Amino acid sequence: MYRIGQEEIDAVARAIMTRDFFKINGSGKEVLHFEEEWKATVGAEYALTMTSGFGALCSALIGLGIGPGDEVIVPAYTYIASALAVIAVGAIPVIAEVNETLTIDPVDVEKKISEHTKAVMPVHIQGFPSDMDALKALAAKYGFGIVEDACQADGGMYKGQYLGTIGNAGAYSFNYFKVITAGEGGALVTNDRTIYERALIYHDAGAVAFFGDQLNGIEQPLFGGTEFRVSDIIGAILREQLKKMPGILSDLRRNRDALGALVCGEGKAVWAPSNDIAGDCGTTLALRFETAEECRAYQQKCRDGGLGTTVPIDTGKHVYTNWTQIMEKKGALHPAMDPFLMKENQGLQMNYTMDMCPKTLDLLSRTLYIGISPEWTEEDIAHIASIMNG
Known about the structure:
This protein is α/β, with parallel strands linked by helices. The chain has a domain at about 5-240: Aspartate Aminotransferase, domain 2. It has helices spanning about 5-15, 30-40, 55-65, 80-90, 105-110, 130-140, 195-205, 230-265, 290-305, 325, 360-365, 380-390; strands at about 45-50, 70-75, 90-95, 115-120, 145-150, 155-160, 160, 170-175, 185-190, 270, 285-290, 365-370. The mean pLDDT is about 100.
């Protein structure tokens, strides 16, 4: 969470004082207004606000018609929710390497494509844009869909286009740790009417047919789904957060660039490559070292100076080796609901091993993250740089 204050407090009060803050209402309509504002911001035709980025990912996969018998290629470095969304719809996640940008490697993606591949899920982790041109070319060549996991990249861009709007559908998260937040929350965007209609039905199957006129113009038949609906309190907070997003991103990028200019260069640290540094959210300065030992030594120097840093190999459920439910193939409590046991999925690519993505593990062990604050002053940046250069 970067910036929150009286504006959000007033927005929550505004929603509550209507005494009518269910999502579908005749008063504030905060969620519906946020969806219109989010669509206008990122340039998408359709948007649905949900309880989480996970909910948005599941809804996007359902919208694409993905289920048992299908494979979805995911990166080896992403939060486990990306892979869990795939098994939640009955499909099998196929794990691919990341490249030097720490986003999914299109070269390895192509190696993992099979006749069962129905989608690839690029993850713009830490706000780092994936190589969407290469992935779109593969999708066109082999005929599969793209579901963007932009949950850590609210407001990020790739070559002038907002992340999440480049593939068939995109998912965002607004939980406490994201660029903008309502504590929890997420959103799906798409320009595909069929994906939108299916996601609408799936994300709130118990209410869309009962509350308001949500099914007006909907041609997809009703089917059983789940409930990822949010209240107008969430919508009210997000509307205020959205107003702050441009300033947050601008300040993050400025401070990242300023710090990077001081600590990276000839004889200094090496800035990890990016697919689009201008579109990168700026939440993180990523440094790359020749060896894991050099990375740890640099981290210790920062710690000795009081500067907190992270080596991404240490980030638990963000690394595929720590995806217990996936690696142990425990996709559901009841065996009949477990995608790994479904007959439709037998023979698919699920021979997971701890060493299956060695390039990813190597890169994660040789990378150091410095988290950026949008509130840093020039003096703060100079002080941090002196620690890192010391």
